[in-house]
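User: Sequence for TRAF-interacting protein with FHA domain-containing protein A below. Tokens please.
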Amino acid sequence: MTSFEEAETEETVTCLHMTFYHPCQEDKMMFRCLNFCKREQVRADEMAKFGRDSNVCHYNLMDTRVSRIQFSLQFYRKLNSSEFCFEIKNMSKKTKLIVDQTELGYLNKIDLPWKCIICFGDYQILAEVQEGESVDYFETYLHLAEVPILQERCLPSLQPIPENGISSSLFPSQGKSPTETDENESC
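Assistant: Structure tokens for TRAF-interacting protein with FHA domain-containing protein A:
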């Protein structure tokens, strides 16, 4: 047998991608202690804690309005399953944690959906789980968003279209129908 055949099978690692946003992130630099765009390993038996207390939290948010421990993430495997999950727990007595539409009070916890938005105060975090097989550790991969994660989408309104097929919202100059032009014509 060759060394390739004898090599151990490479194990994939569960990775939690987290994209952070705060409206004052450029002025207040609250994310300056986070390692962005770098994968970090966390042992499976450790809790990933986020907050302002650097003695307790591995992920520090430099903001006096953030609790010493804002929230924690626990990696676990579902009973009678090979599926790995994260459980998120609100550790703040003062601030509610919102995971998608679920509001968590102090010490409340839920399973983290595979893709969700976590909010507290003015903080917005997009969390996405990339599945893996390793039972020894998981990875975090942090990103910084340039624009709000919850930014409203500008979708056209679903107004009924009149029988003539021309919507007045598309052509604000009322009473006039659109003029057809050849695409090769210059303006």
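The first strand starts at residue 15 and ends at 21.
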